[in-house]
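Protocol step 4 of 6: structure prediction from sequence.
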Amino acid sequence: MLDATDTRLLAALQANAHLTAQELGEMLNLSPSQAGRRRQRLEAEGFITGYAARLDPERLGLSVQGFVQVQLATHGPEQSKAFARLVRSRAEITSAWTMTGEADYLLRVYCANLGALNTLIHEVLLSHPSVARVQSQIVMDQLKQDAPLPT
């Protein structure tokens, strides 16, 4: 179970994953070794699953962000596995979820331009034998950046 210090540590690391044990200790009123041991325990117990840098898509030339809903033609295990392999193989697809409702999958994609998004949809997704229908939405503006999880 998490105590109040653990949740404060997790919140601090979500805001800045580069915090040292010394800095965490100062923030949490712990010694650096205590803060470091808590961090290691939270990593070992799977509360912290990794660390990553957030990149600016515009600076990388990825000017189109979109969400793509995919409906499969059939829902057997082989079709699902084949589609999952396709999703994992495409760098433009940055996240994917299985969904309830009309669409089977929701994909978040980043592309250099509309032509690249068109290619992804028509030549990659729609040409896959498991896919029956695709519906896309282009992001006009992101009102809230991907936020830390509530702790």
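Step 5 (inspection) to follow. The chain has a mean pLDDT of 96.
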